[in-house]
Amino acid sequence: MTCFVLYSFQSQKKMFKGLLSVFLALVAVTSIMAKSEKTAVKQEKRVPQTLSRGWGDQLIWAQTYEEALFWARSRNKPLMVIFHLDDCPHSQALKKAFAKDKEIQRLADEHFILLNLVYETTDKHLSPDGQYVPRILFVDPSMTVRADITGPYSNRKYAYEPSDMNLLRNNMERAKTFLKTEL
Question: What integer pLDDT is reported at residue 121 of this predicted model?
Fold first, then answer.
């Protein structure tokens, strides 16, 4: 009988060690998973790359030219299309001035559908005087490109520089008045 009790005790001791090992393994796995979830949460807190690309993170930007045209037509707002390149110093300077100008940001937020592109579209109307960056064009809700709203440069009609923010504000005001009133 003592042998059986001793055997039973050793058997229970082995079972306890086995269960303890499984429990510790589960705790370790849970701990590792919790750390990876915390890391994922921390990574999500980083500012993600937005459609604004730095032109105004609080503004709502269309993802594609087609989507922007749809929004312009359905919301009866003019579309502002900004062509730029991330590695172009002129684009970077204009972006900084555009994002810093509170009146431009307000006008853009309240009165425009916004799209910034780092590639050319297939619509040749958006490059009436060539494909250069940076350039800003306006399209009214009837899908008419506002070729009459230009920047100050005769060789790059739709180009703006940081010193041209007053003209850009005035042109934004002009773009709010549509060429064709019937849609």
Answer: 84
